[in-house]
Amino acid sequence: MDGDVPVHARDEEAAVEEQMEEKGPKLPPSHPPRTPPPQKKPVEAPRPQPATKPKGVTSLQLPPPGGRRTAALARTRMAIRNRRVANWSLTGDRWAAKKAVARVLETVRGWGYTRPEDAPVEQTVALLVGAAVADSGKRISLHVADQEEMLLVVVLSHTAAEPDEDVLVRLAAVPGVSSCGTDAGPDGRRVWALMETTPPRRRTPAA
């Protein structure tokens, strides 16, 4: 008998050592334990998309003829309400401007307006019609209206052309033009000008 250790205890220790030799030493895992995947976010309802924005309206707002003629860009919309209105449909050709000038002058003089003078009206109408004809439409629409001693002249090209702001600079230089603008709508590109019908106020010299 070896010391005080019983025989059956030595047998149990030998059996445990044999099992450890068969299974090999216990090593740490070669990769970290698998973590559960993150929880999925709840499905959100699609956010409502804003309606299609209308194409911008570009206009030049000018001070009265007696003031400084520095044009300032603004966002406005042309509206015709409670006015005398005349309109015509013209072929979009090189003769359209001459025909339009004659119709507008005849109409505004028939309404009793003596101003603007013929030259500014001719120049304004020619610029508006020329811009519409340049859009290569087969026909154009011409509208003239009055309200509160102002004349509004509008021309539509009935094409999908984008607004062109170059014509506004030329319109703004015409004497008597109070404001002008261009935009694109369901009826195509629209160009308009608002004209004064009263003489410009004279500046009082400083004392």
What can you see in these coordinates?
The chain is of the alpha+beta class and 207 residues long. It has four helices and seven strands, in the order H-E-E-E-H-H-E-E-H-E-E. A seven-stranded antiparallel beta sheet has the order 2-1-6-7-5-4-3, covered by helices on one side. Helix 2 packs across helix 3. The longest helix is centred in the N-terminal third of the chain and has 17 residues. The radius of gyration is 42 Å and the shape is rod-shaped. The N and C termini lie far apart (139 Å).
List keywords for this structure.
alpha+beta; 207 residues; seven-stranded antiparallel sheet; 27% helix
Helices, strands, pairings?
Elements: H1 7-23, E1 58-61, E2 72-74, E3 84-91, H2 96-110, H3 118-133, E4 139-147, E5 150-156, H4 166-172, E6 177-185, E7 188-196
Antiparallel strand pairs: 1-2, 1-6, 3-4, 4-5, 5-7, 6-7
Helix pairs in contact: 2-3
Share of helix, binned: 25-40%
Number of beta strands: 7
Q: Looking across the biggest beta sheet, what order are the strands in?
A: 2-1-6-7-5-4-3
Distance between the termini: 139 Å
Strand proportion, as a percent range, falls in: 15-25%
Average pLDDT rating: 75
Order of helices and strands: HEEEHHEEHEE
User: Which structural class should the secondary elements be placed in?
Assistant: alpha+beta
Q: Output the number of helix runs.
A: 4
Could you say which overall geometry the principal axes of the C-alpha atoms support?
rod-shaped
Low-confidence stretches: 48-57, 60-78
Biggest sheet record: 7 strands, antiparallel
- Rg, rounded, reads 42 Å
